[in-house]
Amino acid sequence: VMTLIQDIPVPVIAKVNGMAMAAGCQLVASCDIAVASEKSMFATPGVKIGLFCSTPAVAIGRAVPRKASSFGNALTGAPISTHGALLHGLVSKVVPEEKLEEETLRIAQKICDTSRPVVSLGKAMFYGQMAQGCNTAYSMASQAMVDNLALKDGQEGIKSFIEKR
Asked: Which GO BP annotation is one of this protein's (predicted)?
């Protein structure tokens, strides 16, 4: 499931309201966008019972800088607060609990209001270039721009820009 999130053509949004532990924290780190309530906490506590959270560490290590907290928290099992998760990139946005549903749906609607083929192309390019060197990543991004311009929605976007509408 965790690896499929990057492969599906639409963005996946996590809505977190409480504890996201071990694989739950991994799921949050794997999602494209994560919105969390202020009361949420994130942890990989397996080390406390003799089981290092190895698979969660893959997604978390790619979402959160190593020295900021992710590896240290995996080594100690200590939780990360919602604001710490925001500061270090594990979540995209923190909102009061009563606004969580509304804000998550607002973000989803903004994505739905855009071109699905363009979003799909962009998501695939973004994740594809992440594991590449800088030159290869720019080459991939350049090709994605050409592919995007070939899409009907890309052509309409350029036309509307030129016509100032």
From this structure: fatty acid metabolic process
| Rounded-to-integer distance, Cα 54 and Cα 144, Å | 33
| Beta-ladder partners of 95 | 37
Model confidence pLDDT, tens digit, residues 149-159:
899 998 988 89
114-142 pLDDT tens trace = 999 999 999 999 999 988 899 999 998 99
- Cβ atoms of residues 88 and 80 within 8 Å: yes
> Which tokens sit at 105?
């749906």
CA atoms within 13 A on the CB side of 146: 6
CB atoms inside a 10 Å sphere around CB 164: 5
Q: How far is CA 28 from CA 7, 53, 140, 144, in A?
A: 16, 14, 27, 27
Cβ–Cβ < 8 Å for 53, 74: yes
CA 89: distance to chain centroid?
9
- What residues have CB less than 8 Å from 96, skipping those under 6 apart? 37, 38
Identity (one letter) of the amino acid at 52? F
pLDDT at 70: 56
Predicted local distance difference test score (pLDDT) of residue 22 = 93
